Amino acid sequence: MRNLKLILAYDGTDFAGWQIQPEAPTIQGILASAIGRLTGEKVLPQGSGRTDAGVHAARQVATFVTKSAIPTENFLKALNAILPTTIRVLEVAEAPPEFHARKSARAKTYCYRIFRGGICPPFVARYVWHYPYPLDEEAMQKAANEIVGEHDFTSLAASDPERGKPETASNVRCVYSSQWERVGDEFQYRVRGNGFLHHMVRNLVGTFILVGKGTLESGGVGGILQARDRSAAGATAAASGLHLMDVEY
Description:
CATH architecture of the largest domain: 2-Layer Sandwich
CATH topology of the largest domain: Alpha-Beta Plaits
Largest sheet: 10 strands, mixed
CATH class of the largest domain: Alpha Beta
Number of helices: 5
Strand content: 25-35%
Number of domains: 2
Shape: globular
């Protein structure tokens, strides 16, 4: 048996997220079908995490176990010949038997892109949230600094029925870096941490938007964290702007 590690990039616009679903196109489902065509095996590749519907990935990681003797370089070429052009396999490599895309992950980096110009180009629109309205970008940067460190992020997490019961599932996560940056017409938020809760990054962006609009003071994010109440934070930002950039092991 071989344990193969894949690095994937995908445009999530036309998919119902990573996780396989009945009667809905998903990254996991389409990848499993492509692997099955090559190996004749029924395989369910495991991803580093479940990106939501409409969310993109620059370097998602997946693993699967196979009896196939197909060389890794041939797997790479064959999978890309089968998969839609919106999903690309960037790398295929042998991994130790104990390696698991999700369980072995130590850190992830996400980028959220907001297009600030008045007219959003059609070639960019699928990958950003278009927000041309006034924002205090400096105040948003200050607010982003408040979440660095280990915190209980209950206020920034959507309910997730697939997680454990509330008394056993911890919402404590450690954020290593959190910052906004101007890149041309885009205002981009980049965050790196040891893990992220359901909708956590999009809820953070929605909360920072409140700071940018002046509805919430830049120092108010700490109070939102302490509240441990989802209703205390901002709305969930659009899925189109979110990109999984990297997974570290």
